[in-house]
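Why run this: before we spend reagent on co-expression, it is cheaper to look at a predicted model of the complex and decide which construct boundaries make sense. The entries below are exactly what would go into the expression plan.
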Amino acid sequence: MNTPLYRQLAEHYLSAIQSGTLRPGERMPSVRRLMQQHEVSLSTALQLCRWLEAQGWLEARPRSGYFIRTPRRLTVLAPAAEPATVRQIDPAQYVGIHEKVSAIIAKGQRKVSVNLARATGAPELYPHQQLRQLATSLLRQHPTLLTKAISPGGNPELRAALAKRALDVGISTAASEVVITHGCIEALNLALRAVAHPGDVIAVESPTFYGLLQVLESLGLKALEIPTSPHTGISIEALELAMQTYPNIKAVVVVPHLQNPLGSIMPDSHKQRLLHLCEQHQIPLIEDDSYSALTNGDKIPTAIKHWDKTGNVIYCASLHKIIAPGLRIGWMLAGRWQARVSMFKYAQTRYNEELSQRMMASFLQSTHYERHMRRLRQHLQQQRDKMAEAVAAYFPPETRLSMPDGGVSLWVEMPPECSSQAVFDAALERDILISPGLLYSNSNRFDHFLRINCGAPYSDKLDDAMRTLGHIIANQQKRRAA
Amino acid sequence: MNTPLYRQLAEHYLSAIQSGTLRPGERMPSVRRLMQQHEVSLSTALQLCRWLEAQGWLEARPRSGYFIRTPRRLTVLAPAAEPATVRQIDPAQYVGIHEKVSAIIAKGQRKVSVNLARATGAPELYPHQQLRQLATSLLRQHPTLLTKAISPGGNPELRAALAKRALDVGISTAASEVVITHGCIEALNLALRAVAHPGDVIAVESPTFYGLLQVLESLGLKALEIPTSPHTGISIEALELAMQTYPNIKAVVVVPHLQNPLGSIMPDSHKQRLLHLCEQHQIPLIEDDSYSALTNGDKIPTAIKHWDKTGNVIYCASLHKIIAPGLRIGWMLAGRWQARVSMFKYAQTRYNEELSQRMMASFLQSTHYERHMRRLRQHLQQQRDKMAEAVAAYFPPETRLSMPDGGVSLWVEMPPECSSQAVFDAALERDILISPGLLYSNSNRFDHFLRINCGAPYSDKLDDAMRTLGHIIANQQKRRAA
Ligand SMILES: Cc1ncc(COP(=O)(O)O)c(C=O)c1O
Ligand SMILES: Cc1ncc(COP(=O)(O)O)c(C=O)c1O
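The model came back. Tokens follow.
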């Protein structure tokens, strides 16, 4: 059977779109122009356009004609699968995640054209202008701010401002309980050092962000990876089983909201069950809440700490991803371990610099904060949508993806033949940095996953990068299948 | 025998001086005025003044008359004693230095009128104006400096500038070897974590700064205190003996230049012996060089790292005390442990904030740096002299003190009856904060010592505080002796 003429022409335009010659947002040649150029009838030219439109590659705009777009094929992609909660839990062991991560970081240190490995938004999405103004005016008001010894205990105004922000997630606390840290990562270090000793086992989500796995390894702790749903977070059943099997679990660490990398959000009922389970087994619960303020809509989810009546929850958070990725301001509420954590903080790094602390205090107290957060959430939502569309358009159809309810990244499951290390290497050759799934577990379980940053506004450059990634993955799939 | 009239009058003026009614630097009433006021002869008035002058309380200035001063009685004070190197070395043990330090820090958190507990200079002695200008111009040049994700590995310009500074202390290194840290304290944490495990024994100077004792305790390491000379630093003989006695020493930590609190500077020959001893026993040597740039004169002492050919020395330093006490920029060269330390740094706190790093890079590269250091050294020398004179004038005659060859503090040995804790408490009641000797050892060996900050320009307020301290100590001495 011969391919009809309109389809031949349509394929021609499709390959122009897929190669980037025609870009999303650009105008498609008019019907009149198509008729002239290819010497075809009006009906053929119209059929051509309607077919591309039906496939999702064109969009008709009233009185303006057709425009190129990437098809919204999300519904075509299968959502992420639930983990098997009955699978054998990996024996906790040292596996050298440090070396894996450092190899990846070292490779990624060269300047790349598109960095999709970050876990923050683009610099322009944050209030750089207000922060700059705050910095200059603080320096004017306090001429010796940079040369005066930092007063102990953390800046009181910042601690008060953070105690107030804690109300947003349902936590009522005193400023004096707030410990300021160098990012959430230092908070996690302090929390773990407070409750566990080298050789102890720590239950974590699987997959989980490699930063946590590194912290555990660097502290001589063993990660016990608990199956985690891309939709509802850590499996309470699997965790309960683990607690019965491993008597030496000394803490549970979870990211209940917009888990990195899954994007999952635990339902409130799960959070309460988790809290009670930990209390019952007298195992401290470390809650990493770095991302909750990036949840879609204006209602930030409630922290597990909200229900904590015994001080068994250590709450860790950060302003790094929500206000200023150039600053290292994290914070924590350490419950029963408050004194121990405060002293570790002092012995480890002393206090954060005054200027940054005061900038954050002023910003949090200003009306800019709420406005910024609302805008940031909206931008990120648009950007995630665009990136997801690109995944749907350019990645092989076997790709699986669930849309998270917020945050800065997508967790993409490639066809099972693909290796994230190989995709990482091939992408880097094309000047694109991605975050390979192999970093998110001490096992190889997630080696066919990628975490893709959605922090930057969608652009031709990003579109090119996503198309290139799609090619790389498809090639891998073919080669491995062969 | 009757006290002659001139002596009676002299005692009257002396008590006015000692009570602060007449202050150093003020003019003494003229001879003519004394004659009128006390209705005495010219010769009596002259005798009065000459006697006070002979005692060191007055200074004759040509054509201006007599001025009050505090007597330069330093030669009267015995210098610090050498430690007994053959004494029994304390069994390494947990003694709760954390609790001691936190109790002291907690008490000292209230606002005091005179803070003599610091280990930095006054804010005005540092280049606040240049730093402010640098900050503002960096923010102007790089509008998103505060909101851009920090690039991994530390700012390249700062690393290069520090590699260049390392030449000042005789170390030739590459920028890529420099690890930027949150102050020297983080460098020490990383160094110790790299070479030792909980339960290991670390040899340290005795006395040593409490920050180090806290780090050891917080990491589960045991401090083995080695007798240390106030003049030449750690006793190599005692250390050698310790190495033979304790097979599980996993590192030696020394502050070879302007040791905190002693102020001692190791002779080069000692440094080389120490280096070889450590190499021979295959024990890593951690060199804390926080203060060397504050040594009198323009020749900074040579770092032990200079002679290190095997990478066995981990060099730790900081800009906190020499350029900007409001910033937390430290750095280190980790020798054989470079990779391990870099990864620990990443896992512990990620990287320092970009703005601070760039400020320091620009400042170090500017001509301001050398000029600032020269001025700072001169100011500190004057201030130490003034404070030492005050100790000589106001503290009991049994007080011992050796003048350090630089730095920001004096290590004062009170009469043996005194307790630094009691002096701390009494001083705090009078709104004066001092650093009690009990913090500088896990034993009680230094409880009759105080570390006194000399960071601020001498003033009436400081003079009052020193006089008050002198009273407190004298009272203690009397009460305890009774
Ligand atoms: C879940 C989670 N926790 C903590 C961190 C580290 O946060 P910070 O940059 O505030 O140290 C990250 C960063 O990627 C993260 O994803
Ligand atoms: C000898 C010594 N090392 C390290 C430190 C800590 O230095 P930084 O403030 O750079 O962390 C101090 C501070 O008192 C010190 O005296």
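The mean pLDDT of chain A is 92. The longest strand of chain A covers residues 222-229. Bring this page to Monday's planning discussion.
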